[in-house]
Structures are given as C-alpha cells and as structure tokens.
Specification:
The structure is a homodimer. Chain A is of the alpha/beta class. Chain A contains 15 helices and 16 strands. The termini of chain A are far apart.
Chain lengths: 375, 375
C-alpha cells in the first residue's frame, strides 16, 4: 500500500492541480515545500510556516543524521514531534549534501563514505542506511539515495552515475518493501542527456515508486536546458504519480516547470535570500541593502496580504538588514515564503480555472516591470 | 503640562502598583520595558512583544542617532511609525552607550564628544542635543543626559560626576520647557555614596521632573550595595512621580527593587540571554547548551502559558542552540520576555492583593529549588 495518493482535480495544458493525500494531511499541488534544513525552516516559527499555506516541509537527512542524530530523533518521538510540525514531512536521502558539503567523500558501488563538515567524523550512507535513517526520522515521504553530477559533465560520467543511481533505486525499493503508511520516491538522473533521462525514468517506472523526482537540475545549467529536460522527462513518468523537481527554484523556474507538469518543488531560496536582505515581490527580487530604500516610507507591497510586506517600511527593512538585526531576516524570510506560497496558490487556482497562460503572463509582466518608481 | 500621570492603585509596604497614563497608552506599573536597542527588540516581532504584556519599550538614542539617524527617523514619521510600535516608547539619553561603546570619548562641561563604534565618525552630545534627538525620534518619555561612573570609584570622582549630571539636569529642564504631551525624567547619580545620592535626588526634585530615574547602579556592584542605595534614594524622591531603576536586571533584582518602591525597569538580559542559549524559568536560569538537555523530551516548563516554554522540547531547544539556528534565539528570547512579563504581572497582582511577601517568597523558592529532576 502506498502511503500517498494523488488525485488530480484539474489540468490546463500539461499543468495539473490536485490533492496529494498523506496519512498526516493533504498536500495541495503544485506545492512548494519550505526547507527545514536542520529541523527548522530558518528564522520562522513552525506554525507561521504552516499558516502561510505550507502543507509540507522538507528535512535534510545529511544535517539531521549528523546533528542531533537519527536515533536520538527517533527516541524523542520522530521528526514531527521534535520540530513541532505535525503535518507532512519529506526527507531527502542525504546524498546531495554529502556531495556539496562533506569532506573526503568516496563513492563505491555500495554507498558513500564521507567526513562530517561539523567535526570531521566518518560516516557512511548506503541506499539501505539512508532509508533506515528516514524511517527513524519517521518522515512521510522518503527519497532514494542517488548520485548527482555537477553540470557540465562528460556523457560517460553522466551515464555511469545515472546507472549507479538506478541500481540504488532498485535496492531502495527492496529495503522499503513492507513499510506501511509511508511513501518512497525514485529520482531520475541523466544530466543534460535527453536519452539518458528517458532511460532513467523508464527504469524507475519499471521498479515502481510512489512518486518520481527529477534530480540533478538547477545545478548551474541555463534555464532552457532545464526546461528542455523537463519536456523530455515528465512525459516518461507514470502520470498517476506525483512529479517532484528537486531544489527548484526561482519563481520563474517554478512557473515554467508547473507548465510542464511538475507537482512538487523545494528550495532554500526564499529563506536564504531573506537572510541575505533580498525580498521577493510581485515586482521581482529587491535587494533591501540598496541605499535607495533608506528613506522610503512605503512598504514592500501595500497590496500584499501578509504583514512583512504591508506593515513595515522599506526604510525600516533597509535599516534592519544594514544593521545585521535578526528581525530583518525574520521579516524577509516570512515575506519571501508568503510570496512563494501566494504564487503557488495562484498557480493552483489558475490551473483549476484553465487560465494558467494568463496567470503566468501577468506574473512575468510584474517581475519584468521592475519595482515601484523611485520617490 | 506633564505628558504622563501616575495613578497609584495599591501599596504593599513600600511597593506600589498603578497606571502610568501617557498619550500613547497606559503603562501598568511596576513595568518591565524590553530594550529595542537599534529599533528592534532583538529576534522578536513588535506585535509579539506587545502581546506578552509589554506596555512600553525602550529605544537607545546612541544607536539610533548613528544609524539610521534621528533626522531620518523624524522624516519617516518618528520612531513609533519606523519600528511599527504604536504604543509608548522611552528613549535614553545616549550617555550610557557613549561611555560603554564609543571610542575616544571626551567629556567637558558642555557635553561629550565621541567617535561612532560603527564607522569612527565624530559626534557630539550635549543635554540640549540629546533632547533634540529624542524629540526627533518622538519618544514619549525622554531622559536627561547624565554621566555615569563605573563602580568602584573615588568619592571625589563620584561627586564631580553627580554634580555635572545635576547641572545637565537643569539645562535639560530648560531645553524641554514648553514641550507638550511628552515627559522628561531626571537621573539620580552619586554612585555608592548615600549622602551624594540624597543630594542628587533633592537637587532633581527641586528642579522638578515628570519622573525620576536611578542611574549608575547594576554596574558591577554587589546586589546588597544596590539595594542599600535604593533604601536611601527612593524615599528622597517625590512620591507622586514614577521611579525608574535603569538597566536592571535579574528577576531577583527586580523583585527586591519593587519591594523598595521602584516602578519601572529596563534590561537587555531576557533577549541577550536568549540569544546566548539561556532560558529564564520559574526554576531559575537554564543553560540550554548544557548536554543534559540533549535527550530530554520535556518542555522548559509545561505549566507556563507561553508557547516557547510549552510546545518545544528541551532537546529541540538544545539542538537549535548548539546548531546556531536563529529559531533558538527567537524561542528563548520569546520565553524570557514572556517570563519577565509574567513575573511583573504577578508582582502587580500581589501588591494589589497585599500579598507581595508571599509572592516573593514563592518566586525565590522556585529559583532556589533548581531545575526539574534529571530524567
């Protein structure tokens, strides 16, 4: 029995909207999942994240296995209890952070050995251990361990890595067998090679997963490369199952991927950008460090429905960011997540109304139009 | 016309409770004023600070004059608008931070010249300029510029400084004359010299202020020295006017000062300690970095009425603090301010019920009893 079930309620072109039912609650798709890296969506209270319309968050297996440790989280009642988030959680496999953060990593057929970036201690992840950790964390959606190559890369290297990920997918399916009430997603690899992506998608579909992620994108390639890969990959995936584009992305990336049939997204951008003084608005990205905001009494966007965009002046946000005050990151992270979830709600409504093209055109017009005129 | 009016509603021994009416709202006394150093009570949303029962916050003239600048705040509508806090605000004179933070400070009869700790730029504060800045900020209660000597100090130095502060008090009163709807407080100095404190208090009372602060305490002296100075100083102040003990303090300091007739307090401790991993509870101060919390599923205090003490495990708080996650400082600052305001509400209710001694005895018993037994 799969732990999740996708009910598509409307389609518009290749885009679709629906409900992903999980034992811990329904997830409205297309969905943006805020990233709760080390057990916290940074600079946000959990109930605040939920109130913005976040039906599900992501937890990073790599961070949590190193600190506080998966066995400890399990003894404390699991990740939901630990982080005070009773709603659905997806955990990644840990593989991506091993590649990007850990020192002295060494991949072999069986798994990957690496040193913690925190204290240099040696750890090992295999497909089986990754799922064991995710079971200890008790997340609702588990991801298979995969290998992700940075682009550009040689075709032979991309193919080797994709085939390794496919063998790990098979082992993950076997290790997961018998798990009740939880879901397992396979991950399509194949870099920028269209035929390899189709091979990977077909291989995963043959194994059979509760959902399918598309990995190895948004790793430095131009947007048109990513979108072309989506054009090839999405149709090769089982239509009845959710499709998840990992680590994406900018609002424009999300909109274009939704158009191509993607259901799920995660990205650190809204919270990371918020901590670095960047605000996402319907006018595009605003750098609040910019001196032009220093004397501006206007809010970020008086038409927005969320307090950080409405109740604080740009001058104050500029002051907070320049002064390194934590409230700056708190307000901008809140604004950015609110903007992202507002965008997702708009996409869902537009698909339901079969007006996605109009919605996207208006959103892009707003981003391209630039900010309010200077005072 | 004074901008404020104190109505004492009950007394218990020398302690008193009442309402300090200001044009921007009533302040329940004894009151603890959270410190909004640079225009933000660190790691807290303003409406959250207010919801904890904070009727008034403090703003630091030194920080705000340097960044974003008093004239800029005035052009943006004043400090209340700038920081999104429509309720009362007290501003200090800037003098204390000049002494503790600025470089190359030089005091003369007329004022103090110093270099900004931010960029080395040269600034000057006089009694008149401090009040001009506070008028630009448009705070509700202004403080006179004073000089504060660190203890221990020679009597001659304490007396010289006290008499300078008294002359600055006279100039402050003249500069403030004609201001409508705002209040000006004088500041008693005199270090640990009881007779000098009485001279200072008498001198200020002769000038006539809307309220009287006791400065130059909690600067390193033992608690019994501070309390003895309060025993001498408070009776020398006009009973109809509020008494404010600046920069104090630990919960035990506040309780003892309330017993001696003090009405107002401010301190960075609850928020600063929160950012450094320390929780204030009815069991006393808990260092959440301590490894004994790492596996403890219990909340800080399940009997507390505020979410950070009730809805998150000690293990999670420990994890957040150890990981340097901003949510750790957010939750502990919130808890600590909630605890402080809960304590103040308890003190007010106890005075009203003429049961202050019982209340204080129970509070001290809690702090002395130590934490919950280890698991």
């Amino acid at each position: 029995m799969s732990g999740i079930d996708l009910a598509v309620t409307a389609v518009d072109g290749r885009a679709r909207t629906g409900i992903l039912a999980t034992p811990r609650g329904d997830v409205r798709t297309p969905v943006f999942m805020p990233v709760g890296t080390a057990g916290t969506v940074k600079a946000m209270y959990p109930d605040q994240v939920h109130a913005l319309g976040s039906d599900i968050i992501l937890g990073n297996t790599y961070h949590l296995m190193l600190r506080p440790g998966a066995e400890r989280v399990a003894a404390l009642g699991g990740l939901h209890v630990f982080v005070n988030w009773p709603w659905p959680i997806l955990t990644d496999s840990g593989g991506f952070q091993v590649m990007s953060l850990a020192a002295l990593r060494k991949i072999d057929e069986d798994g990957v050995t690496f040193r913690s970036h925190l204290d240099g201690s040696v750890h090992r992840l295999t497909p089986e251990r990754s799922l064991e950790i995710q079971a200890l964390l008790d997340s609702d959606i588990h991801m298979q361990l995969d290998e992700c190559v940075a682009l550009p890369a040689e075709r032979a290297e991309v193919e080797r890595s994709m085939r390794l990920s496919l063998r790990w997918a098979e082992r993950s399916k076997q290790a997961f067998a018998g798990t009740e009430g939880r879901a397992l997603f396979g991950i399509v690899q194949g870099g920028d090679q269209h035929d390899l992506r189709v091979v990977s998608a077909g291989g995963l579909a043959a194994i059979g997963f509760d959902g399918y992620a598309i990995g190895g994108l948004a790793v430095g390639e131009p947007q048109e490369v990513m979108l072309a890969i989506l054009d090839t990959t999405v149709p090769a995936l089982p239509a009845a199952r959710p499709r998840y584009l990992m680590g994406v992305g900018q609002p424009d990336d999300i909109v274009e991927a939704v158009r191509r049939g993607v259901d799920m997204f995660d990205c650190v951008l809204p919270t990371r950008a918020g901590r670095h003084g960047v605000a996402y608005t319907r006018f595009g990205r605003l750098n609040m460090k910019n001196a032009r905001h220093a004397d501006d009494p206007r809010p970020l966007d008086e038409a927005a429905g969320w307090p950080p965009a409405r109740d604080y002046s740009r001058a104050y946000l500029h002051h907070l960011v320049k002064s390194g005050e934590s409230l700056g990151g708190m307000l901008l992270s809140w604004n950015n997540l609110a903007y992202y979830q507002h965008l997702m709600a708009g996409l869902r409504a537009a698909i339901s109304a079969r007006q996605l093209d109009d919605f996207v055109a208006r959103a892009k017009e707003g981003w391209a139009g630039g900010d309010l005129p200077e005072l």
